[in-house]
Design goal:
Helices cover about 40% and strands about 15% of the residues. It is α/β, with parallel strands linked by helices and about 550 residues long. The structure holds adenosine-5'-triphosphate, 4-amino-5-hydroxymethyl-2-methylpyrimidine and magnesium ion (MG).
Length: about 550
């Protein structure tokens, strides 16, 4: 008998590739006579999920019965950011919104056994630690990590719960400092923990947080993030990141809510999830901070429990009408600032792979990338696009695909750019769902209006100057660009013949919705893509400061 594939999971009709498969007349699960001889169809999940490894975080932490912090927060945070989360439990706490009523530590040997079970079987990318109740547990963990190395270690040095209850005693402190910090990629103390780690120094100001980060850095981790969630008298929630050389202040509005239980666990897990996906540390911390801020904002009025510290909703995105698969980022028009568009002909001429071209443009400071590979064959293009998606994700630079909706779906790109003779933007929106970026090339007022109605996110307007990259492309000049900018509520990126010599004059036009320039030859028909990109970026910045 023909094996019947399981029904695909429910997904919003228009938001993923499954919708595409449902519409295809050739897809009818299990009823085709041919399925008796063919191997069973693969489960029609979201395009590319099948081919992509699942980023994996292992959390080594305590259970919170109230499920706001600890293991429970870690699993929810990782799930929200698209990472798998396995869990080694170090302690079971009886805990609620009032405080911690009891702690039952798991025997050290059994923590070791759990670690062995997970690490010997599964391919873990990043280990994140939370509550480590004894020096023995820290030692067992360090031993396991020596035996089963992972890509990164995130240490949240949980010592005291926000309710003031001790979760890890002073005897553990020395082992933390001596054994765990030296192998950590990042350590994320709140101000109270930073103070304890440094022998009860008092920390009141940002400058104190910087000094603390510097002192903890000397204990061996590659990065230190001192979190200011508990800093009184600040209207902003400010964290300080130190990499041994530079300090980065991460600032967000302090959300007025009682529901901040578990923010620290969540932040560290989000950092771990982003690192597992391949992000750089700075990007991982930025995403994590934004995630916590958004989750607190969406949960500010939740009421769970009667105590002073409530949990928040990690899966708030599921309730949002803008819910989308895989990506938390909404389109930011500022990304259009320096828009790099690749060209297969130029890559061939300079003997560069698409991947190397994209890497170099990002290194030079491109803020968004479009793969415009008119001549590449589909299979080769898809492979390259998948590699570019990884590169762009890890740098926080959106990646769009020119024309090819199918390739964009298959590689899970951030969106597409279409022209007037490609699929209409509203059809593209139907296929890609609300969360993806759609750009449309427009030359006229009518086209700009239509792009808005169709649900596009931005307009590409040109050719502003004569170009050789695109054949039979009328030149609009500044006047044409002005018409389109004024006609539209959408952000606009100027394109066509723009280079280091004229980019400044485009930005100086100063139309409020003109957000940047898109360039092809100016970056890719050059010997060193990174240098040209850097140069153009500084020209654009200078022009903006003048206008
Ligand atoms: N009310 C708030 N509004 C916005 N961001 C906040 C707020 N409270 C905390 N944060 C942010 O949450 C993250 C976690 O920091 P926090 O200092 O709260 O950690 P923590 O004390 O270890 O939390 P917990 O122990 O409850 O898990 C930081 O990025 C911090 O800036
Ligand atoms: C189990 C556990 N881990 C961490 C924290 C820190 O919030 C907590 N309250 N409980
Ligand atoms: Mg904490």
């Amino acid at each position: 008998m023909a094996s019947v594939p399981p029904l695909p999971p429910y997904r919003p009709r228009h938001s993923d590739a499954a919708a595409l498969l449902f519409r295809s007349p050739s897809f009818s699960p299990g009823v085709s006579p041919a399925s008796a001889t063919r191997p069973p169809r693969r489960f029609p999940v979201v395009a590319s999920a099948r081919d992509m490894p699942w980023p994996h975080v292992l959390t080594v932490a305590g259970s919170d019965s109230g499920a706001g912090a600890g293991i429970q927060a870690d699993i929810k945070a990782c799930a929200a950011l698209g990472a798998y989360c396995s869990s080694v439990i170090t302690a079971v706490t009886a805990q609620n919104t009032v405080g911690v009523q009891g702690v039952h530590a798991v025997p050290e040997e059994f923590v070791g056994e759990q670690l062995r079970s997970v690490l010997s079987d599964m391919s873990v990318d990043v280990v994140k630690t939370g509550m480590l109740p004894s020096a023995g547990v820290v030692k067992v963990l360090c031993e396991s990590l020596r035996k089963f190395p992972v890509k990164a270690l995130v240490v949240d040095p949980v010592m005291v719960s926000t309710s003031g209850d001790t979760l890890s005693g002073p005897s553990t402190l020395a082992t933390y400092r001596d054994e765990l910090f030296s192998v950590a990629d990042i350590v994320t103390p709140n101000v109270k923990e930073a103070s304890k780690l440094l022998g009860d120094v008092s920390l009141h100001t940002i400058s104190d947080m910087r000094n603390a980060a510097e002192s903890i850095y000397k204990l061996g981790p590659k990065y230190v993030l001192v979190k200011g969630g508990d800093m009184p008298d600040s209207s902003d929630a400010i964290d300080v990141l130190f990499d041994g050389k530079e300090f980065t202040e991460l600032r967000g509005p302090r959300i007025k809510t009682r529901n901040t239980h578990g923010t620290g666990c969540t932040l560290a897990s989000c950092i771990a999830a982003e690192l597992a996906k391949g992000a750089t540390m700075l990007h991982a911390v930025q995403v994590a901070k934004k995630f916590v801020e958004s989750a607190l904002y969406h949960s500010k009025d939740l009421v769970i429990g009667n105590g002073p510290q409530g949990p928040f909703d990690h899966l708030f995105e599921l309730k949002s009408p803008l819910y989308k698969m895989g990506s938390l980022q909404k389109f930011n028009p500022d990304n259009l600032f320096l828009y790099a568009v690749t060209d297969s002909g130029m890559n061939k001429k300079w003997d560069r792979s698409i991947k190397d071209a994209v890497k170099a443009a990002i290194e030079g400071g491109a803020t968004i990338v479009q793969l415009r590979e008119k001549d590449a064959d589909t299979r080769e293009f898809l492979e390259a696009a998948k590699a570019c998606v990884q590169i762009c994700k890890s740098s926080g630079v959106p990646l769009l695909i020119n024309d090819r909706i199918d390739v964009a779906l298959a590689c899970n790109a951030d969106g597409v750019h279409v022209g007037q003779s490609d699929m209409p933007a509203w059809e593209v929106r139907e296929l890609l769902g609300p969360g993806k970026i759609i750009g449309v090339s427009c030359k006229t007022l009518d086209q700009a209006e239509q792009a808005w109605k169709d649900g596009a996110d931005y307009i590409g307007c040109g050719g502003v100057f004569p170009t050789t990259t695109k054949k039979n492309n009328p030149t609009l000049g500044f006047e044409g660009l002005r018409t389109v900018c004024l006609a539209s509520k959408l952000p606009v990126v100027a394109i066509g013949g723009i280079n280091a010599g004229n980019a400044g004059s485009v930005m100086e036009l100063g139309f409020p919705n003109l957000k940047g320039v898109a360039v092809v030859s100016a970056l890719f028909d050059q010997e060193c893509v990174a240098i040209e990109t850097r140069n153009l970026r500084s020209i654009l910045k200078n022009a903006c400061s003048r206008s």
